[in-house]
Design brief:
With 415 residues, the protein is of the alpha/beta class. The chain is built from 14 helices and 12 strands. Strands 1, 2, 3, 4, 5, 6, 11 and 12 form an 8-stranded mixed beta sheet that branches. It has a 4-stranded mixed beta sheet with strand order 8-7-9-10. Bound molecules: nicotinamide-adenine-dinucleotide. The site of nicotinamide-adenine-dinucleotide has 32 residues, from α1, β2, β6, α10 and α12.
Amino acid sequence: MAVNTTAHKTNYNKTGVWILGARGDIASTLIIGVEALKRGQVSSSGMTTEIPPTSDLDMIGMDDLVIGGLDIVESNLVESARTVGQRSGTFSSDLVKLITPELNIIDQDIICEPEASWEAGISQDNSLNINSFINKLRKNLQKFSEKHQLKHTVVVNLTSSEQLPGDSVSHDTLEGIEQLIMDNRQDLLSPSICYTYAAFQEGCSYINFTPNPGIDLKGLQQLAEQKNLPFYGNDGKTGETLVKTALAPMFLYRNLKILSWEGVNMLGNGDGQTLNDPNCKVAKLRNKANVLDSILGYSPHAGIDINYVPSLGDWKTAWDLIHFQGFLDVKMSMQFTWQGCDSILAAPLVLDMIRLSEFAARHGESGPMKHLAAFFKNPLDCEEMALHPQFQRLLDYVQAHQKNPRPMLADSCCQ
Ligand SMILES: NC(=O)c1ccc[n+]([C@@H]2O[C@H](COP(=O)([O-])OP(=O)(O)OC[C@H]3O[C@@H](n4cnc5c(N)ncnc54)[C@H](O)[C@@H]3O)[C@@H](O)[C@H]2O)c1
């Protein structure tokens, strides 16, 4: 299926996509993907917004996106794209060569910001002033918007997993967070909290694809609500957790009691290297662990591990063992192996989120956007963790926005 490269029905002004972690694997894959889609070089496989009924929404096209962002390392897009492509074998150097002029243009809007690399709760950098840092972030967003005359900007967090900051009641109110900023509390404010704050202050939509804190803090949700902005969950659901949330309800429906669900994740990319640090994987493990209890209504033994295996590169292997009990209390087991390329699974999902965020902002929607629950490991304000009812929320949202609704996916599948 060819992707719609222009605005679907109306000629909107351009939408900015400001990527935090713009030199990383997902960011590079996303940028390559956008340029390849614009040229009709690849299909739109992997993008939910390219199939009905979601594709019926009046959404922005790839040509409407202007990409920029920042990272803590200096590089250039052609270099990062070549490295990612060679390491994972997901796109050719010929493709990179073909779109080099476009990559060089995007590079002009990617800033190197080494100041953004403090570790909340660990180090105290005396030279860092968080208030000035946030003002700089806000100015960057203003300049980007003015330069390209953007109608709206979607800020997307694709940075590495952070150490969690200490808990504080100050996170529960906007005043509390602003006081922490004024007091330069680097122990209680991570870079991602500052990114979320700066994005909302500038009236941008904000997507947190990472397990990092930010939008889950009540104080920042208050800011989004004050600015009438939509907000979403944390941590994209792309692999093992996606399968888990689709499969766990089956055991529940058939009264097959899950005794243990053990999962081992092995990955060798930059994310895997970061998660190798026990302090950085706390939030990721928590997001992965939350889902089972909520779907099943009880707590089976559930071990989850994340191991760094450099030779695997971006190709993640998740091996899961499900030990369950049936009639006459007989114990049985199921195992599955998921082998997916992390960035190839993540990039189209991020594009879907960008389009749906812009759509929600354009329609003046604000508050927690539950219709994107199926896209996150940790959806906000949504008790429902099973994939299918979460996806139904997206279908209901689409139907509510359609002028001439067509039969829902689920309905048409049954015909
Ligand atoms: N790939 C998936 O399927 C998937 C799923 C869910 C969540 N995620 C999350 O997405 C994020 C990105 O994944 P990736 O594979 O692209 O990782 P990556 O390591 O390749 O890229 C991360 C980039 O962020 C930059 N960075 C680190 N700290 C920063 C900071 N404070 N400010 C700005 N830039 C910073 C790094 O220099 C790097 O370029 C990770 O947090 C990962 O956990 C990935």
